[in-house]
Write the structure tokens for this entry.
Amino acid sequence: MTVVGAGVVGSAVARELARYPALRTALVDARDDVGDGTSKANTAILHTGFDAVPGSLESRLVRDGSRLLAAYAADCGIPLERVGALLVAWDEEQLAALPALAAKARRNGYDDTVLLDAAEVRAREPRLGPGALGALAVPGESVVCPWSTTLAYATQAVRAGTDLHLNCRVARVDQVTGAAGHHVLTTDRGTLRTRWLVNAAGLRADEFDLLLGHRDFTVRPRRGQLLVLDTPARDLVRHILLPVPTALGKGVLVTPTVHGNVLVGPTAEDLDGPDAKDDTATTAEGLEGLRAQGARIVPALLGAEVTAAYAGLRAATGHEDYRVRAHPAQRYVTLGGVRSTGLSASLALAAHTLDLLTGAGLDPGPSAALPPIRVPDLGRTAERPCVRADLIARDPAYGTLVCHCERVSLGEIRDALDSTVPPVTPDGLRRRTRARGGRCQGSHCGAAVRDLLRRAGGTPT
Amino acid sequence: MNTSSTSTDTNDSTSDSPSGRSGGTGGTHRDVDVLVVGAGPAGLAAAARLAALGAGRVEILEREREPGGVPRHCFHRGFGTGAESVDGPAYVGRWTAAAERAGVRLRTGVTALGWTGPLTLATTGPDGPAEVSARAVVLATGARERPRAARLVPGTRPAGVFTTGELQQSVYLYRQDVGRRAVVVGAEQVSYHAVDTLRRAGVAPVAMVTEYERHQASPAHATAARLRYGVPLLTRTTVTALVGHGRLAGVRLRHSDGRTTTLACDTAVFTGDFVPEHELARDGGLVLDPGTLGPAVDMSFRTTRDGVFAVGSLLHAAEPAGTAAREGVLAAVPVLAHLAAVPGTHRAAPVPVRVDAPLRWIAPNLLATATARQPFVLRTARFLDRPVLQVAQDGRVLHHERLRGTAVPNRTVGMSAAWVRDVDPDGGPVRITVLGTTGGTPTPTEPPAADGGTDTP
């Protein structure tokens, strides 16, 4: 069994398959880390699926996945805060759209929405800008750490026996037919023979599908630029503040993060051209637009320092729903068009993939319990190692801070470098520890961090 | 003193303060007379002076492993005065020695996490979490350069992007390879130090870029960079994007005539644009000045909380090491006065000092009965040729002053404090306005912002 793509979806699938010791599973990715594509640059929201297209596969998988991930996060120490969302109406048209959204939520199996009038909105979100006419509250929406989630899936899969191959781009796929039929994957790192194949290649899922002769969809990347605001902004925002979708588009959202920041974004820019799938550049217009729109939603945000700005690409296909399809004759499943809800749906999508595989004839054999894991809890509400006397008494490295802005200790960095899925770049280390992720962006600790990474054998570029 | 003695400062606020979770599993508690946070020039000088003047137990907390602050990675001369000019490490070495001679307890590798009482800080370090209570706290946490993201420079996020501080640490403290061709963003004093560091590291500085019409450094530095090292200075030029995946491939620029170009380089250094490291001050609920973004202080370095003082680049980011150290020395007198005073002595509400654009900020920015005198320092957002500054309170003009020479952005502009005695302690904010400049058209006086805010670009 081979899963192509170690993003949040592919890693979740690998973890699901790792329950079956009789399956020998490989998880391959072209990049040097898990979750290094679309999965690392999103809004970090765990959606209830209240606004999905009713009856769609996405609706069902987001709804189920959301519950599964909330439970999984609690088990593994993935930071998650159920802050709830408010869809804020800023004009009469948006206000008029709220009851229909509540009805749509009910059709998606979500019954907990509450319509709020202007005074109630102001009471719940006191820093909101002038002109909010009302809102639809969606109390089930949560914020989660996207990096820990992918890392937890991949770590658990690898510990259960999955072979993780990074820096391993698949260039071609050849079919050997017959009873002992299999696929031969030609990769950067040699040849991989596999009987079963899952395409979780995200932005490149269409290109991979083509290697197997399918032209079901085309991925047209939709760029989303985001601003991360420094921690003092966190006190200004209590809920995920969602725009009300109208004919003119979706608008941007403002959301707190589990790490104690505030995110503003994303933009939605459909990209074309040969380099579109690599175009994760932010633009002056994009960033200025986000500043202005964020300040309209919560004016006090304008005074906040920007910690980071980045852009992610969603795997949009022009279709309303996921492009998930089993090809039993090829022993192949495609998980395409998972645009922006991959994180929320990941665990349900993994279970669904297993169903599709068994439906196509896979006999996974008996299942075994996965080894339980804990990931470092990087949430703002967690007790960090640097304040734990017991931990520091045993190992002073937990009291030796390297990254001051995010209070990351030498012990945590060392643990990450020694972990099951270790980082090889400063950015990979940041996603595991938050080192260099704060307001100074490595101005104080960047040189020290690169030095630690170099000693561990990484590529401290 | 290294016991878990109870102090009046570890009161019930400990339990519900987020930073009060420091112990959890049992931290230690100490009491000192003066606690200084930050062992840069300002903190070292303040502690050395206080200990020498008999302030009692004086302790400095320094989160880095070595004392010295920013100068510890400034391997260029110019620290200290005249013939005694030395490089940064040697300069702060002297202050460290002076502090230790005076009996200061210097605790490096120890971070102040937050406040658990009015004059009590939660700390952590390799010895574990602890609480330190003091009779006076001096904040000397310094400043940092704004990194690329905070300047909203668009583009990709490749490796090879530094601030001067990170560049100097990489080159001097860790001997890392920092690239081949570098663009230096900024043309103030620190930018020229970045050029020097790059050259010493074998990196070719291919250009300096500034949005201003001129450099903002000393003429000697600017001339040397341009003529001796051949580094062109691109004025009125904006960095519009960074390009490259993995490693930086170039910097896209827009020139004053609207032309855009891309300079190929694998390193970019974002220099200057300092902001105070004010997190501890903010966490403690001290009032921050809207212009400097550091804690608001009066002429005795007193913040808005009784017993908490602040010195150095935290107050006005950033100043030369000598200026910061001088403030540390000056602050010793008011700190001693506080230690000698009866606790709870009534202190009148200070009068804030505000500036109008194109001035960016002024420090000190509170006026109260002062026990120390220091001149005011200001910053401007524009070049101003021999500007006339007007000081007024509630429409009453207190003072006019024509500054000599040109007020230069990113450089300190000094202003006399003689008018302070004429300020009405019960009046409204004092406002500093630019009335005009010589030779050119008078600068239009912008209407004062209602919130007293300043023009922060």
